[in-house]
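Propose amino acids for all 294 sites.
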Protein backbone atom coordinates (compact mmCIF):
# COMPACT_ATOMS: atom_id res chain seq x y z
CA UNK A 1 0.00 0.00 0.00
CA UNK A 2 1.26 3.48 -0.88
CA UNK A 3 2.03 5.70 2.11
CA UNK A 4 2.80 8.98 0.36
CA UNK A 5 0.70 12.03 1.26
CA UNK A 6 -2.08 12.72 -1.25
CA UNK A 7 -1.51 16.44 -1.81
CA UNK A 8 2.21 16.84 -2.54
CA UNK A 9 4.14 19.95 -3.40
CA UNK A 10 6.49 20.04 -6.36
CA UNK A 11 9.92 18.74 -5.34
CA UNK A 12 12.61 21.41 -5.57
CA UNK A 13 16.36 21.38 -5.00
CA UNK A 14 15.70 23.05 -1.64
CA UNK A 15 13.24 20.31 -0.71
CA UNK A 16 15.89 17.68 -1.50
CA UNK A 17 18.51 19.47 0.60
CA UNK A 18 15.97 19.61 3.45
CA UNK A 19 15.27 15.91 3.05
CA UNK A 20 18.98 15.19 3.38
CA UNK A 21 19.25 17.41 6.46
CA UNK A 22 16.24 15.70 8.04
CA UNK A 23 17.66 12.27 7.09
CA UNK A 24 14.46 11.42 5.20
CA UNK A 25 15.47 9.01 2.40
CA UNK A 26 15.09 10.36 -1.14
CA UNK A 27 13.31 8.06 -3.61
CA UNK A 28 14.41 8.20 -7.22
CA UNK A 29 13.28 6.01 -10.12
CA UNK A 30 13.78 6.08 -13.86
CA UNK A 31 10.96 6.57 -16.37
CA UNK A 32 11.00 6.73 -20.16
CA UNK A 33 7.47 7.48 -21.32
CA UNK A 34 4.08 8.94 -20.36
CA UNK A 35 2.68 5.86 -18.55
CA UNK A 36 5.82 5.17 -16.52
CA UNK A 37 5.92 8.86 -15.52
CA UNK A 38 2.28 8.69 -14.39
CA UNK A 39 3.09 5.58 -12.33
CA UNK A 40 6.07 7.32 -10.67
CA UNK A 41 3.85 10.32 -9.95
CA UNK A 42 1.10 8.16 -8.43
CA UNK A 43 3.65 6.28 -6.31
CA UNK A 44 4.87 9.58 -4.85
CA UNK A 45 8.57 9.35 -5.69
CA UNK A 46 10.80 12.41 -5.20
CA UNK A 47 12.95 12.33 -8.35
CA UNK A 48 12.35 10.87 -11.79
CA UNK A 49 15.36 10.31 -14.02
CA UNK A 50 15.00 9.82 -17.73
CA UNK A 51 18.05 7.61 -17.72
CA UNK A 52 20.03 6.76 -20.82
CA UNK A 53 19.36 3.22 -19.56
CA UNK A 54 16.27 3.76 -21.75
CA UNK A 55 18.64 2.92 -24.63
CA UNK A 56 18.49 -0.68 -23.40
CA UNK A 57 15.16 -0.93 -21.58
CA UNK A 58 12.92 0.71 -24.18
CA UNK A 59 14.93 1.10 -27.40
CA UNK A 60 16.64 -2.30 -27.41
CA UNK A 61 20.26 -1.16 -27.85
CA UNK A 62 22.86 -3.36 -26.17
CA UNK A 63 24.38 -0.50 -24.15
CA UNK A 64 23.63 3.11 -23.24
CA UNK A 65 26.23 4.41 -25.72
CA UNK A 66 24.23 4.55 -28.99
CA UNK A 67 21.23 6.56 -27.77
CA UNK A 68 21.09 9.98 -29.44
CA UNK A 69 20.13 13.40 -28.15
CA UNK A 70 17.03 13.34 -30.36
CA UNK A 71 15.92 9.97 -28.93
CA UNK A 72 16.50 11.18 -25.35
CA UNK A 73 14.53 14.36 -26.09
CA UNK A 74 11.51 12.34 -27.22
CA UNK A 75 11.62 10.16 -24.09
CA UNK A 76 12.12 13.13 -21.75
CA UNK A 77 9.29 15.18 -23.26
CA UNK A 78 6.92 12.21 -22.89
CA UNK A 79 7.90 11.81 -19.23
CA UNK A 80 7.40 15.56 -18.63
CA UNK A 81 3.80 15.25 -19.88
CA UNK A 82 3.09 12.54 -17.31
CA UNK A 83 4.73 14.25 -14.33
CA UNK A 84 3.95 17.22 -12.11
CA UNK A 85 5.36 16.66 -8.61
CA UNK A 86 8.78 14.92 -8.73
CA UNK A 87 11.96 16.67 -9.83
CA UNK A 88 12.62 15.65 -13.45
CA UNK A 89 16.23 14.96 -14.47
CA UNK A 90 17.41 14.01 -17.95
CA UNK A 91 20.59 12.07 -18.67
CA UNK A 92 22.76 13.78 -21.27
CA UNK A 93 23.74 10.96 -23.63
CA UNK A 94 27.28 9.82 -24.39
CA UNK A 95 29.03 12.19 -26.80
CA UNK A 96 26.68 15.12 -26.20
CA UNK A 97 28.67 16.98 -23.51
CA UNK A 98 32.28 15.75 -23.24
CA UNK A 99 33.94 17.73 -26.06
CA UNK A 100 33.82 21.24 -24.58
CA UNK A 101 32.02 23.44 -22.05
CA UNK A 102 30.19 25.04 -24.99
CA UNK A 103 28.93 21.67 -26.20
CA UNK A 104 27.83 20.70 -22.67
CA UNK A 105 25.95 23.97 -22.07
CA UNK A 106 24.30 23.89 -25.51
CA UNK A 107 23.09 20.30 -25.00
CA UNK A 108 21.81 20.99 -21.49
CA UNK A 109 19.98 24.11 -22.72
CA UNK A 110 18.42 22.11 -25.54
CA UNK A 111 17.06 19.56 -23.05
CA UNK A 112 15.61 22.22 -20.75
CA UNK A 113 14.01 24.20 -23.58
CA UNK A 114 12.64 21.25 -25.55
CA UNK A 115 11.43 19.06 -22.69
CA UNK A 116 10.93 21.20 -19.59
CA UNK A 117 13.22 18.97 -17.50
CA UNK A 118 14.42 20.53 -14.23
CA UNK A 119 18.02 19.31 -14.29
CA UNK A 120 20.49 17.17 -16.22
CA UNK A 121 22.80 14.33 -15.21
CA UNK A 122 26.29 13.67 -16.59
CA UNK A 123 28.71 10.84 -15.85
CA UNK A 124 32.28 10.59 -14.46
CA UNK A 125 34.76 12.88 -12.77
CA UNK A 126 37.81 14.14 -14.72
CA UNK A 127 36.90 16.56 -17.50
CA UNK A 128 33.19 16.10 -16.67
CA UNK A 129 33.82 18.22 -13.56
CA UNK A 130 34.52 21.25 -15.79
CA UNK A 131 31.43 20.46 -17.91
CA UNK A 132 29.32 20.27 -14.76
CA UNK A 133 30.64 23.67 -13.59
CA UNK A 134 29.90 25.23 -16.99
CA UNK A 135 26.32 23.93 -17.05
CA UNK A 136 25.72 25.04 -13.44
CA UNK A 137 27.14 28.49 -14.32
CA UNK A 138 24.64 28.63 -17.19
CA UNK A 139 21.85 28.25 -14.62
CA UNK A 140 20.96 24.59 -15.11
CA UNK A 141 21.13 22.24 -12.12
CA UNK A 142 23.43 19.24 -12.58
CA UNK A 143 23.48 15.81 -10.94
CA UNK A 144 26.83 14.00 -11.05
CA UNK A 145 27.34 10.24 -11.39
CA UNK A 146 30.42 8.32 -10.17
CA UNK A 147 31.48 4.73 -9.59
CA UNK A 148 30.20 2.47 -12.36
CA UNK A 149 29.58 4.88 -15.24
CA UNK A 150 27.91 2.85 -18.01
CA UNK A 151 28.69 5.37 -20.77
CA UNK A 152 32.41 4.61 -20.33
CA UNK A 153 32.06 1.00 -19.16
CA UNK A 154 34.65 -0.30 -21.64
CA UNK A 155 37.29 2.13 -20.35
CA UNK A 156 36.68 1.18 -16.71
CA UNK A 157 36.88 -2.57 -17.30
CA UNK A 158 33.24 -3.41 -18.03
CA UNK A 159 30.00 -3.40 -16.09
CA UNK A 160 31.60 -4.13 -12.73
CA UNK A 161 31.68 -2.56 -9.31
CA UNK A 162 34.21 0.23 -8.82
CA UNK A 163 36.29 1.48 -5.88
CA UNK A 164 37.22 -1.93 -4.53
CA UNK A 165 40.87 -1.10 -3.88
CA UNK A 166 41.95 1.78 -1.64
CA UNK A 167 43.36 3.70 -4.63
CA UNK A 168 40.24 3.19 -6.74
CA UNK A 169 38.00 4.14 -3.81
CA UNK A 170 40.02 7.33 -3.37
CA UNK A 171 39.58 8.15 -7.06
CA UNK A 172 35.80 7.68 -6.83
CA UNK A 173 35.65 9.89 -3.71
CA UNK A 174 37.81 12.59 -5.33
CA UNK A 175 35.45 12.67 -8.31
CA UNK A 176 32.39 13.00 -6.05
CA UNK A 177 33.97 15.82 -4.04
CA UNK A 178 35.09 17.61 -7.22
CA UNK A 179 31.55 17.41 -8.62
CA UNK A 180 30.24 18.83 -5.34
CA UNK A 181 32.75 21.70 -5.56
CA UNK A 182 31.72 22.30 -9.18
CA UNK A 183 28.19 23.04 -7.95
CA UNK A 184 26.32 19.77 -8.59
CA UNK A 185 23.16 19.65 -6.47
CA UNK A 186 23.40 15.86 -6.00
CA UNK A 187 25.47 12.88 -7.08
CA UNK A 188 24.73 9.25 -7.95
CA UNK A 189 27.01 6.56 -6.50
CA UNK A 190 26.72 3.42 -8.65
CA UNK A 191 28.09 -0.01 -7.75
CA UNK A 192 30.68 0.81 -5.10
CA UNK A 193 31.29 -0.94 -1.76
CA UNK A 194 29.10 0.23 1.12
CA UNK A 195 32.26 0.83 3.18
CA UNK A 196 33.47 3.41 0.66
CA UNK A 197 30.08 5.16 0.70
CA UNK A 198 29.98 5.25 4.51
CA UNK A 199 33.48 6.69 4.70
CA UNK A 200 32.88 9.53 2.27
CA UNK A 201 29.29 10.45 3.24
CA UNK A 202 30.28 12.86 6.07
CA UNK A 203 32.27 14.90 3.51
CA UNK A 204 29.36 15.38 1.13
CA UNK A 205 27.01 18.29 1.74
CA UNK A 206 24.88 17.45 -1.30
CA UNK A 207 22.42 14.54 -1.47
CA UNK A 208 23.95 11.24 -2.56
CA UNK A 209 21.66 8.82 -4.37
CA UNK A 210 22.88 5.24 -4.39
CA UNK A 211 22.40 2.30 -6.72
CA UNK A 212 24.40 -0.65 -5.48
CA UNK A 213 26.29 1.62 -3.07
CA UNK A 214 24.91 0.37 0.27
CA UNK A 215 22.49 1.87 2.72
CA UNK A 216 24.41 4.93 3.91
CA UNK A 217 23.37 7.21 1.01
CA UNK A 218 20.66 9.88 1.25
CA UNK A 219 18.46 8.01 -1.19
CA UNK A 220 18.22 5.17 -3.67
CA UNK A 221 17.53 4.87 -7.38
CA UNK A 222 16.46 1.84 -9.39
CA UNK A 223 15.64 1.39 -13.05
CA UNK A 224 11.85 1.18 -13.58
CA UNK A 225 12.01 -1.96 -15.72
CA UNK A 226 14.35 -3.72 -13.27
CA UNK A 227 12.32 -3.08 -10.14
CA UNK A 228 9.05 -4.05 -11.81
CA UNK A 229 10.48 -7.11 -13.58
CA UNK A 230 9.62 -5.88 -17.09
CA UNK A 231 13.06 -6.10 -18.63
CA UNK A 232 14.15 -9.50 -19.85
CA UNK A 233 17.88 -9.19 -19.14
CA UNK A 234 19.99 -10.53 -16.28
CA UNK A 235 19.58 -7.98 -13.50
CA UNK A 236 22.61 -6.48 -11.73
CA UNK A 237 23.38 -7.72 -8.20
CA UNK A 238 21.88 -4.60 -6.61
CA UNK A 239 18.48 -4.95 -8.28
CA UNK A 240 15.56 -5.96 -6.11
CA UNK A 241 12.44 -6.98 -8.01
CA UNK A 242 9.21 -5.68 -6.47
CA UNK A 243 6.93 -7.14 -9.15
CA UNK A 244 7.01 -9.59 -12.05
CA UNK A 245 5.17 -7.53 -14.65
CA UNK A 246 6.81 -9.21 -17.65
CA UNK A 247 5.14 -12.53 -16.78
CA UNK A 248 1.84 -10.78 -16.14
CA UNK A 249 2.10 -8.99 -19.50
CA UNK A 250 3.06 -12.14 -21.44
CA UNK A 251 0.14 -13.98 -19.76
CA UNK A 252 -2.25 -11.17 -20.73
CA UNK A 253 -1.18 -11.05 -24.39
CA UNK A 254 -1.22 -14.88 -24.59
CA UNK A 255 -4.76 -15.02 -23.20
CA UNK A 256 -5.83 -12.42 -25.79
CA UNK A 257 -4.17 -14.42 -28.60
CA UNK A 258 -5.91 -17.62 -27.44
CA UNK A 259 -9.33 -15.92 -27.38
CA UNK A 260 -8.87 -14.37 -30.84
CA UNK A 261 -7.91 -17.78 -32.23
CA UNK A 262 -10.84 -19.54 -30.55
CA UNK A 263 -13.21 -16.66 -31.44
CA UNK A 264 -14.03 -16.24 -27.73
CA UNK A 265 -13.16 -12.55 -28.24
CA UNK A 266 -14.93 -10.31 -29.11
CA UNK A 267 -18.33 -10.87 -27.48
CA UNK A 268 -21.40 -8.74 -28.29
CA UNK A 269 -20.64 -6.44 -25.32
CA UNK A 270 -17.36 -5.41 -26.99
CA UNK A 271 -19.12 -4.14 -30.13
CA UNK A 272 -21.62 -1.52 -31.31
CA UNK A 273 -25.33 -2.23 -31.88
CA UNK A 274 -27.47 -1.04 -34.82
CA UNK A 275 -31.19 -0.40 -34.73
CA UNK A 276 -32.96 -3.47 -36.30
CA UNK A 277 -34.91 -1.25 -38.73
CA UNK A 278 -31.73 0.51 -39.89
CA UNK A 279 -30.02 -2.84 -40.35
CA UNK A 280 -32.89 -4.11 -42.53
CA UNK A 281 -32.87 -0.90 -44.61
CA UNK A 282 -29.08 -1.12 -44.99
CA UNK A 283 -29.39 -4.67 -46.38
CA UNK A 284 -32.14 -3.52 -48.75
CA UNK A 285 -30.05 -0.54 -49.98
CA UNK A 286 -27.03 -2.71 -50.55
CA UNK A 287 -29.08 -5.32 -52.49
CA UNK A 288 -30.54 -2.55 -54.64
CA UNK A 289 -27.08 -1.12 -55.35
CA UNK A 290 -25.74 -4.53 -56.31
CA UNK A 291 -28.77 -5.09 -58.63
CA UNK A 292 -28.11 -1.72 -60.30
CA UNK A 293 -24.58 -2.81 -61.05
CA UNK A 294 -25.78 -5.86 -63.03
O1 LIG B 1 20.63 5.64 -16.88
C1 LIG B 1 20.24 5.35 -15.73
O2 LIG B 1 19.19 4.73 -15.54
C2 LIG B 1 21.07 5.79 -14.60
C3 LIG B 1 20.67 5.33 -13.23
C4 LIG B 1 20.93 3.90 -13.06
C5 LIG B 1 21.30 6.16 -12.19
O3 LIG B 1 22.03 6.46 -14.80
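Proposal:
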Amino acid sequence: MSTHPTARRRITLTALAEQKAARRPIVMVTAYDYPSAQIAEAAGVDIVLVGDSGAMTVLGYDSTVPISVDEMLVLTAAVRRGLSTPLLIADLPFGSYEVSDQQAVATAQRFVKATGCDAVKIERGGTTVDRARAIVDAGIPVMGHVGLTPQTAVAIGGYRSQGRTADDALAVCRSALALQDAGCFAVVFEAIPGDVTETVMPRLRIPVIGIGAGGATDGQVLVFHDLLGIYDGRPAKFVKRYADLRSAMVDGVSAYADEVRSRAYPQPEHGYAMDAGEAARFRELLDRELLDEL
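The two ends are 68 Å apart (CA to CA). The longest strand covers residues 142-147.
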